[in-house]
């Protein structure tokens, strides 16, 4: 039996649809979650969001034991959290770092990810619907020989 893909979302993503729609669009996190479940209906998707760093780390630990892949949008923790990076280092499966906006078109503070060096792939700038693309890419990574 296949283990689920974990889709983890960091701080402030619970405000999608209302937070800076000119950058993040009008899609809500609930709509993103529905999109994720609809994208791979025959595969388990564990979808979670937290504003707490420790909770994201706990979910990464859970994914280490119970998941096949991780798609993570660490949000602001991307650029500040060594602890999150260290937790991701322990995961043996594929990891996709995902950002709704193109962080490289934004202010310089958003250009240096602490997470990127420890993940399999990075996706940015595809908007909220890009989560579906990330899930399809993860599915492909999981079926490669």
Automatic annotation (TrEMBL):
E.C. number(s) listed in UniProt: 4.2.1.10
Stored Pfam families: DHquinase_II
Pathway in which the depicted protein is active: Metabolic intermediate biosynthesis; chorismate biosynthesis; chorismate from D-erythrose 4-phosphate and phosphoenolpyruvate: step 3/7
Catalytic residues (positions): 24 (proton acceptor), 99 (proton donor)
Keywords associated with the record: Amino-acid biosynthesis, Aromatic amino acid biosynthesis, Lyase
Residues noted as binding substrate in the record, renumbered to the chain: 73, 86, 100-101
GO molecular function terms attached to this record: 3-dehydroquinate dehydratase activity
Gene3D superfamilies membership: Dehydroquinase, class II
Enzyme category, top tier: lyase
Annotated positions for site Transition state stabilizer: 19
Reactions catalysed, as given in the entry: 3-dehydroquinate = 3-dehydroshikimate + H2O
GO biological process, one term: chorismate biosynthetic process
InterPro entries, per the entry: DHquinase_II, DHquinase_II_CS, DHquinase_II_sf
Its job: Catalyzes a trans-dehydration via an enolate intermediate.
Subunit structure, as described in the record: Homododecamer.
Membership in a protein family: Belongs to the type-II 3-dehydroquinase family.
Name of the protein: 3-dehydroquinate dehydratase
Lineage of source species: Bacteria, Pseudomonadati, Pseudomonadota, Alphaproteobacteria, Hyphomicrobiales
């Amino acid at each position: 039996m296949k283990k689920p893909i974990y889709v983890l979302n960091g701080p402030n993503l619970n405000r999608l649809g209302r937070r800076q729609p000119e950058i993040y669009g009008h899609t809500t996190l609930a709509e993103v979650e529905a999109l994720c479940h609809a994208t791979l209906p025959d595969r388990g998707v564990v979808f979670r969001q937290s504003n707490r760093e420790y909770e994201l780390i706990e979910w990464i630990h859970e994914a280490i034991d119970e998941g096949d892949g991780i798609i993570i949008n660490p949000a602001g923790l991307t650029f500040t959290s060594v602890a999150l990076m260290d937790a991701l280092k322990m995961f043996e499966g594929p990891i996709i770092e995902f950002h709704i906006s193109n962080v490289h078109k934004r202010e310089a503070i958003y250009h240096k990810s602490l997470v990127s060096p420890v993940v399999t792939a990075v996706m940015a700038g595809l908007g909220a619907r890009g989560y579906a693309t990330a899930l399809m890419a993860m599915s492909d990574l999981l079926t490669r020989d």
